[in-house]
Specification:
The chain is of the alpha+beta class. It has helices at residues 14-21, 35-40, 76-80, 83-88, 90-95, 102-107, 110-116, 122-129, 147-150, 225-232, 236-246, 257-276, and strands at residues 7-10, 26-29, 48-51, 61-64, 67-71, 133-138, 141-146, 151-153, 156-157, 164-171, 177-184, 194-203, 206-215, 222-223. The protein has a 5-stranded antiparallel beta sheet with strand order 4-5-10-6-7. A hairpin with a 2-residue loop joins strand 12 (194-203) and strand 13 (206-215). Helix 10 (225-232) packs antiparallel against helix 11 (236-246) and helix 11 (236-246) runs antiparallel to helix 12. The protein starts with 6 loop residues before the first strand and ends with a helix. The chain binds flavin-adenine dinucleotide (FAD). Flavin-adenine dinucleotide (FAD) is lined by residues 27-35, 37, 72, 99-100, 104, 108-109, 111-113, 115-116, 118, 121-122, 159, 164-165, 189, 191.
Length: 280
């Protein structure tokens, strides 16, 4: 199938993009790796495509006030090559190679992944696990939304159709930061059947501030709060048991609910070992 006819507009600046987005039924085009497929399948039929790829200033990774700020137009491949990201946001660096294939990572953007919010995607889960924040520009100015309240449901977020996500920020890792990442996919590069992104703070031999965020098991990234509390108490067995109430994965084309539950338990063991293992 081919996309339904629509008008194309290339935004020259952020203000220009926001202006164009005020048109009825406009949709932003970033890396196009999800959007073009939905257009081709006519799952989406916008009247106007607003290409934000030439908006200046959105393609940088910078350190600011103890946070790593990743511009929305930073491509996965660019992020993978970033020494700054590897040093200061190691969880994201661990997750990037699991996203699709090199061709997809050459075009796909960090902002597109966070904005699209596929429940089986790696970066939205990392964003929540790192207690990040989204910087959003809209018709009434710029606002910042915490990751914990960013996702509202299936492909629903704090972004309105008039907003542009300009960047995400995550706290820069310190010597005490511990992170863990694992996923099960049918083939490397496929969306995950289930995955887990986690962060914690080393506290002597124990860990604190544990954030366990599963993906591929719900309508959005899912925090396993019971398991987080159990791990912070050093009780790995209780954490595994807590998953029974923390998670209620619906079955999908990838795996049944029972298989996802089983995989979540295995992921928890692997990621816990990584969190407690010492390296960030
Ligand atoms: C074969 C294949 C395999 C893939 N495998 C994976 C995978 O394993 N894991 C994974 O996470 N992803 C995977 N993807 C999807 C890929 O990561 C996409 O790049 C990503 O979902 C969207 O990023 P994009 O820049 O391509 O956004 P686009 O496709 O351009 O846009 C996606 C949506 O987000 C909106 N949007 C984009 N940028 C912004 C912004 N700055 N502000 C507000 N709204 C915005 C668009 O309007 C659109 O609705 C795969 C894609 C393909 C084709």
């Amino acid at each position: 199938m081919k996309p339904a006819p629509c008008t194309y507009g290339r935004a020259r600046s952020l203000d220009h993009a926001i202006g164009l987005m005020s048109e009825e039924d406009a949709r932003q085009l970033a890396g196009g790796q999800s959007l073009i497929a939905t257009l081709n399948m006519r799952l989406s039929r916008p009247q106007l495509l607003v290409d934000i790829n030439r908006v200046p200033g959105l393609d940088r990774i910078v350190m600011r006030d103890g946070k790593v700020e990743i511009g929305a137009l930073v491509r996965y491949a660019q992020a993978e090559r970033s020494a700054e990201l590897a040093a200061h946001a190691p969880l994201i660096a661990k997750a990037l190679p699991f996203i699709g294939h090199p061709a997809i990572r050459n075009r796909g953007t960090i902002g597109g992944s966070i904005a699209f919010g596929d429940p089986a995607a790696e970066l939205p889960a990392c964003f929540v696990a790192l207690n990040g924040e989204a910087v959003i520009a809209g018709p009434s100015g710029t606002r910042v939304v915490k990751a914990d309240t960013f996702y509202k449901g299936l492909f629903e977020s704090a972004l309105t159709p008039r907003d542009v996500l300009t960047a995400i920020r995550v706290p820069a890792a310190t010597g005490e930061t511990r992170t863990g990442f694992a996923e099960f996919a049918r083939r490397h590069g496929d969306y995950a059947m289930a995955g887990l992104a986690a962060s914690a703070r080393a506290a002597g031999k124990a860990i604190s501030d544990v954030r366990l965020v599963f993906f591929g098991v719900g309508t959005a990234p899912v925090r396993a709060r019971g398991a987080e509390a159990a791990l912070a108490n050093g009780d790995v067995d209780a954490a595994a048991k807590a998953l029974a109430t923390d998670l209620n994965p619906p079955g999908d084309v990838q795996a049944t609910s029972a298989v996802k539950r089983q995989l979540a338990g295995v992921l928890l063991k692997r990621v816990t070992a990584e969190l407690m293992g010492g390296a960030s």
